[in-house]
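Page 37, continued from 36.
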C-alpha cells in the first residue's frame, strides 16, 4: 500500500472486549467490566471499518482480490504476537458461509484468512468443525436485535471432538454488532471449547 492510503487507516493495536470494546490487557481474565457475559473473551482487529479497511474488505469479498488476504493476515498476526499470552491458542476456526453463498462467491474469505494465520501461527485450521445450516438474510440495514434474531441457529458443530477442550481463535472478515461472531462462538462454547477468541480485519461501529 502507498503511504497516502495507509495513513487513512484507523489501526487498533490492542485486543478489545467484544461487548464494550474497551482494551483488554489480560487474556486470562478478559474484560473486567463485562465479566464473561460474551462468549468471546477478546477480539483482535486490524482497525476500524474506515477509508482504508472498508475497500480492503470489499475488495476481498466482492472482487476476489485474494492477495489482500496475506497482507491483512500479516497485520492480524502482528497484533497477536504483540499480545502477551496469545500463544495459548490451540486451533483456528473460520466462520463458515452457507453453501449457497459459497457457491455464488467461489471462496470463503474467512477461511482464506484462517489458512494464512494457521501457517503463520503453526496451528491447525478446523475448517469443517463448524457448519452454517441456516441461510441468513444480509445483515446490512437490520437493527441490532434483528441481526441477533437473524443469526439464531445459523451454526452447528460438525465435529465436537475436534474443538472440545481447545482454545479456539474464531476468524471473520468484519464485525459490526457482533451477532455473527457471538452466535458462532456460542455454538463452539456449547460444544465444549475451553475458550473462544476472535479476530477480524475490521470492526465497524453501529448506530
Amino acid at each position: 500500500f502507498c503511504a497516502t492510503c495507509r495513513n487513512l487507516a484507523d489501526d487498533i493495536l490492542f485486543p478489545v472486549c467484544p461487548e464494550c470494546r474497551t482494551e483488554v490487557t489480560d487474556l486470562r481474565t478478559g474484560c473486567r467490566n463485562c465479566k464473561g457475559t460474551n462468549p468471546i473473551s477478546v477480539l483482535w482487529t486490524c482497525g476500524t471499518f474506515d477509508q482504508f479497511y472498508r475497500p480492503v474488505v470489499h475488495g476481498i469479498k466482492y472482487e476476489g482480490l485474494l492477495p489482500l488476504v496475506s497482507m491483512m493476515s500479516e497485520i492480524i498476526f502482528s497484533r497477536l504476537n504483540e499480545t502477551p499470552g496469545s500463544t495459548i491458542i490451540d486451533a483456528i476456526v473460520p466462520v463458515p458461509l452457507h453453501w449457497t453463498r459459497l457457491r455464488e462467491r467461489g471462496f470463503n474469505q474467512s477461511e482464506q484468512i484462517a489458512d494464512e494465520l494457521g501457517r503463520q501461527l503453526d496451528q491447525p485450521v478446523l475448517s469443517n468443525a463448524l457448519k452454517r445450516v441456516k441461510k441468513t438474510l444480509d445483515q446490512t440495514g437490520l437493527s441490532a436485535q434483528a441481526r441477533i434474531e437473524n443469526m439464531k441457529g445459523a451454526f452447528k458443530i460438525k465435529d465436537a471432538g475436534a474443538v472440545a477442550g481447545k482454545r479456539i481463535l474464531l476468524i471473520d472478515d468484519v464485525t459490526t454488532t457482533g451477532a455473527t461472531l457471538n452466535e458462532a462462538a456460542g455454538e463452539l462454547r456449547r460444544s465444549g471449547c475451553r475458550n473462544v477468541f476472535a479476530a477480524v480485519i475490521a470492526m465497524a461501529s453501529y448506530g
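The two ends are 30 Å apart (CA to CA). Flag for discussion at group meeting. The chain has a mean pLDDT of 91.
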